[in-house]
Amino acid sequence: MNTTTLYQHGTLALLVPGLLAGTLTMQDLLRHGDTGIGTGAGLDGELIILAGHPYQVTAQGAVHEVADDFTVPFANAHFADYQPLMSVLGASDVDLNHQIRALAQFDNAFFSVKVTGVFTAIRTRAVAKSEPPYQTLAQAAKQQRVFSRGEIAGTLIGYYAPQIFDGIAVGGFHDHFLAADHSFGGHLLGFEKVTGDVSIQAFNTLAQHLPVANAAYRGHDFSADDITGDVHRAEH
């Protein structure tokens, strides 16, 4: 089991013009990791994979495990081998990220973050599924629903990407959240405080898998797309 490789199917850049077709099944994705994040075909909600179980948070706020034939246009996955980094007591979201970067010292490497604990004033989002012909990422992101909880226990799974890879992934942190009781989750927008344990896992290899069987992807001209601008507006 390879624990030093981060597998990525698709890129965030391909979502920008609306290349949202599902081009990899969950069954195939799970061959490359038991932990991860992503989205479904048509930006169908937010995914978080924990211990080999892929959970989808829908735009209605429901959380359920998806089947092997569920497809994704974009996802990250890896085999978990997290190492303890620190414990935090009432850290804000900004402080958490600053402390992680300062202690990890992996600014120019890909690494995953796992935080288990109790979060307060947490906000997440999920995008509603769109159908072909697909909208652009900017248009589809307007169909998101935002959810919040005052206090909840759960797990943050995220990835840090170096700025030199911005557009392929999100330069910086890209986090998803799942409540311990599976009642709440989604793409993490922010929180007020977290108390819990932080661990990280660094990767020396990025395995970038491209949907070359998809004709729309093969033929698209990305030169006119505002890739980094649209990605940042949609993901932050």
Report on this structure:
With 236 residues, this protein is α+β, with helices and mostly antiparallel strands. It has six helices and 15 strands. The strands form three sheets. Strands 6-5-4-3-8-1-15 form a seven-stranded mixed sheet, with no helix packed on it. The model has no long low-confidence stretch (mean pLDDT 95).
Write the layout of secondary structure elements.
Layout: E1 5-9, H1 12-15, E2 24-25, H2 26-29, E3 35-39, E4 46-50, E5 53-57, E6 63-65, E7 71-72, E8 74-78, E9 83-91, H3 93-104, E10 110-127, H4 137-141, E11 144-161, E12 172-179, E13 185-190, E14 193-203, E15 205-209, H5 215-219, H6 227-235
Parallel strand pairs: 1-15
Antiparallel strand pairs: 1-8, 2-7, 3-4, 3-8, 4-5, 5-6, 9-14, 10-11, 10-13, 10-14, 11-12, 12-13
Shape: globular
> How many alpha or pi helices?
6
The main pleated sheet reads as: 7 strands, mixed
- Please tell me the overall pLDDT: 95
How many strands? 15
From the coordinates shown, what is the CATH architecture?
2-Layer Sandwich
Spatial extent as radius of gyration: 16 Å
Mind telling me the CATH superfamily name? Answer: Hypothetical protein, similar to alpha- acetolactate decarboxylase, domain 2
The CATH class is: Alpha Beta
Task: Give the tally of structural domains.
Answer: 1
Give the CA-CA distance, first to last residue.
33 Å
Q: What is CATH's topology name?
A: 60s Ribosomal Protein L30, Chain: A
Strand content: over 45%
The secondary structure category is alpha+beta
Adjacency order of strands in the biggest sheet: 6-5-4-3-8-1-15
Q: Determine the fraction of residues in helical runs and give it as a percent range.
A: 10-25%
Order of helices and strands: EHEHEEEEEEEHEHEEEEEHH
What are the segments in which pLDDT stays under 50 over at least 5 consecutive residues?
none
